[in-house]
Amino acid sequence: MLSTYPRVPTPEYSxxxxxxxxxxxxxxxxxxxxxxxxFSEAGGIPKLVSVLLGFSPGGTKDYSFxxxxxxxxxxxxxxxxxxxxxQDAIAEAGAIPPIVAMLGSTEPQMQSxxxxxxxxxxxxxxxxxxxxxxxxxxxxxxxxxxxxxxxARDRSASxxxxxxxxHPFNKDTIAKLGGIDPLxxxxxxxxxxxxxxxxxxxxxxxxx
Length: 208
Known about the structure:
One of its GO terms (molecular function) is ligase activity. Keywords: Ligase. ARM repeats lie at residues 94-136. InterPro entries: ARM-like, ARM-type_fold, Armadillo. This is E3 ubiquitin ligase. By secondary structure, the chain is mostly helical. It has a single domain (15-204), classed as Leucine-rich Repeat Variant (Alpha Horseshoe), CATH 1.25.10.10. Helix content is 70%, strand content 0%. The protein has 13 helices and no strands. The protein has helices at residues 15-29, 33-41, 44-50, 63-80, 84-92, 96-102, 108-122, 126-134, 138-147, 150-164, 168-176, 180-189, 193-204. Helix 7 runs parallel beside helix 10 (150-164). It starts with 14 loop residues before the first helix and ends with a helix. The mean pLDDT is 91.
């Protein structure tokens, strides 16, 4: 475990410095629970989430800000993965509403990273599953499974899997909002093992 981390980007940083900082944080937290925990204990989660709090779809045409938010979503995915304490902390810091809003972006990579972050935040976490669904994520996720880029389709199916597992209300919501047909479509047209895994996981989470 590293004892120091790249600083969370703050306004005085240049755009490339901010991006490089977030990329470094992402790689440090990838598949490393000790580093996930160290980053959280250093107070990094609220600072990182604060980058997202000004985001709204169509609310900015600043490409550097859009790219930074896209990278932060990927970092949140890695910080939350398999770490319940970080799932709690990220939700408490207010990350869920802006991440759900990112699903409505026209940028395919932002859509994809937001879906992946939702999958990590909601996985085996009942409170986050409910919060994500209440914030309005189910309908855009179903749309992305049908119409998104290849990566966004897979990651959105993974997010639906996370939302549906052991959560009867979310299962009902996914079914009512038309989530089954896009999943079946991806099962037929998906070109990767990841597609099959995510769709099978979502459909096997229980009756939808």
